[in-house]
Design a protein that fits this description.
Blueprint (H helix, E strand, L loop, with lengths): L5 H9 L18 E2 L6 E6 L6 E5 L3 E6 L8 E8 L3 E15 L5 E8 L5 H4 L8 H9 L4 E7 L4 E6 L8 E4 L11 E4 L3 E7 L21 E7 L4 E6 L8 E6 L6 E7 L3 E5 L2
Antiparallel strand pairs: 1-3, 2-5, 3-4, 4-7, 5-6, 6-7, 8-9, 8-12, 10-11, 12-16, 13-14, 13-17, 14-15, 15-16
Length: 272
C-alpha cells in the first residue's frame, strides 16, 4: 500500500487483536505524519517524564527519541499539546534502542497506542470561510470519489477517506469494501491535481463551461497548469506560496465537485 520503514512495520505488527489493543479492522490505513507535517504540535513528553522528539506520528502509534531508556513491552503515556488542545494517550513500547552517543545518550523508541489518537482535535481550527471547511464537512461521512492526475499524465481513480490539504500524502482504495492492504499511498508532490467527482465516468456529451452559471462564493480564479490545461472556478483559500488550494468549478453541472490544485504544477493564475 505504500512505503513503510522497519520501525513502522514493527508498530503495525504489534497492533494485533490478541494483545488487547482496540483498533479498526483496516489498521494499516492510518496515515503517518512526519515531523515536518506536525509543526502545529507544540510539546510532546512522557507522562511524569522527559520531553520527546517525535520522528513520526499516526493515530495508532509514534516513533520518537528521548533521554529515557524504555523497556520493550512496558507501558506509559504520551502527553501531546497542540495549538488547539492537549491530550494524553497510553501506549505500549514496541522497541527501544540507542540512537545517539555523540551529543549525550539518547534512545529511539517505537510505541503502539492503546486507543486511536484523534489528530484532528490537536490541530488548530481552520478558517470557517475556507473551502477546506466545506471539504471536511462533505467528507466527514467517510469516502470521497477521486480522480488523481499525476505530473507525468497518469490517472488513478478510486476512493479516499484520509486526504487533508496539509498532509504530504494520502491513500486511495479501489472500492469502499477494499481491505487495507489494497490501499495505495499517493505522495502529493507527484500529483498535479485531485478531482473530487460525482462519478468516475461523467457525461461524455457534456462540454464544461468556463462561464459562471450561478453565483459562487469565493474569489473567481482561472488556473493555467504547466501543461497548458485551464480550469475556471472560485476559491477561498488561494495563497501564492501555499502547497495547494481548492477550486470550485464555474460550471454547476460539472462532474467535478471540487478540485485540489497542487501549486507546484501551476504556470500562472488570473482573477477574472
Amino acid at each position: 500500500m505504500g512505503e513503510w520503514d522497519a520501525t513502522t512495520a514493527a508498530v503495525d505488527d504489534a497492533l494485533d487483536p490478541g494483545i488487547g489493543l482496540v483498533f479498526e479492522p483496516n489498521r494499516r490505513a492510518f496515515p503517518r505524519l512526519t515531523a515536518r507535517e506536525i509543526t502545529w504540535l507544540r510539546t510532546a513528553r512522557l507522562k511524569y517524564g522527559p520531553s520527546v522528539s517525535l520522528i513520526d506520528l499516526s493515530a495508532r502509534g509514534a516513533l520518537f527519541e528521548t533521554k529515557l531508556q524504555l523497556r520493550p513491552g512496558s507501558e506509559s503515556s504520551l502527553e501531546l499539546t497542540g495549538r488547539a488542545a492537549q491530550t494524553v494517550v497510553p501506549f505500549r513500547v514496541v522497541r527501544c534502542q540507542v540512537s545517539d552517543l555523540t551529543g549525550g545518550l539518547r534512545y529511539r523508541g517505537a510505541c503502539a497506542f492503546k486507543r486511536p489518537l484523534d489528530l484532528i482535535d490537536l490541530q488548530p481550527p481552520v478558517d470557517t470561510n475556507s473551502d477546506e471547511v466545506d471539504f471536511l464537512k462533505d467528507s466527514a461521512a467517510g469516502w470521497s470519489k477521486v480522480i488523481v492526475r499525476y505530473t507525468d499524465g497518469k490517472l488513478l481513480k478510486g476512493y479516499t477517506q484520509d486526504f487533508r490539504p496539509a498532509r504530504l500524502h494520502f491513500h486511495i482504495w479501489p472500492s469502499m469494501a477494499a481491505t487495507a492492504s489494497e490501499a495505495m499511498m499517493v505522495p502529493l508532490p507527484l500529483v498535479k491535481a485531485i478531482f473530487f467527482v460525482r462519478d468516475f465516468t461523467g457525461n461524455p456529451a457534456h462540454v464544461e463551461s468556463k462561464a459562471f452559471d450561478k453565483l459562487r462564493h469565493g474569489r473567481r480564479i482561472e488556473v493555467t497548469f504547466i501543461d497548458s490545461e485551464v480550469i475556471v472556478g472560485s476559491t477561498l483559500n488561494y495563497q501564492p506560496d501555499g502547497d495547494g488550494f481548492f477550486v470550485l468549478p464555474a460550471d454547476a453541472r460539472s462532474n467535478n465537485m471540487r478540485i485540489f490544485v497542487v501549486s507546484g504544477c501551476v504556470r500562472h493564475v488570473r482573477f477574472p
